[in-house]
Amino acid sequence: MKPRLEIVRHLRLEAPAARVWAVVTDHEGMAAWLGVSQSWLSKAGTIEPNGLGAERTLVDALVGAVVERVVDWHPVQSYRYRIVSNSPFADHLGELKLTPQGPQATDLRLAISFRPRWAGTGLLLKFLLGAKLRPALRKLKALIEAG
After folding, report:
1. What's the half-sphere exposure (Cβ side, CA atoms, 13 Å) at 71?
2. Contact 129/122 with Cβ under 8 angstroms?
3. pLDDT digit string (tens) for 63-87?
4. pTM recorded for the entire structure
5. pLDDT tens-digit map of 9-46
6. By the 8 A CB rule, do 88 and 125 touch?
7. Among 3.55.30.10, 3.30.530.20, 3.20.20.140, 1.10.10.10, what is the CATH number of 5-146?
8. How far apart, in whole angstroms, are the C-alpha atoms of residue 28 and residue 53?
9. 43, 52, 72, 112: which could join 80 in a potential S-S bond, CB 3.0 to 4.6 Å?
10. For residues 69 and 82, what is the distance between their CA atoms, to the nearest angstrom?
11. Are strands 5-13 and 64-74 parallel, antiparallel or unpaired?
């Protein structure tokens, strides 16, 4: 079995957790910061539209349209998602977790783990994903802190 690889990023945001949550769970607005050309909610969640069971489609210039499904949901705390269509990864799991740092600051932890679909591509995929996350997190920080 191919080894599991993981990328973890932390981002301190000068905004309350509710504001951060509203932005990171807005599937239709993700194109504004994630580094994809389009994003939309392709299937509403079972209780909340963006929550558990929701599916979002993200269009990336390199891989095309990718569909992700929310598989775990704890409002204003954390959510997990998996790529369910058109993934270069096998056994992908992403998690966003918020930790309030007082009333006006939040720590965002983003963790993505996966196995490469093709042998010998794991480190390259990890490098490319990390390179894509750096500008995305800078845009996310600017968007959230601008209010």
Report:
1. 12
2. no
3. 899 999 999 999 999 999 999 998 8
4. 0.92
5. 999 999 999 999 999 999 999 999 999 999 999 999 99
6. yes
7. 3.30.530.20
8. 15
9. 72
10. 5
11. unpaired
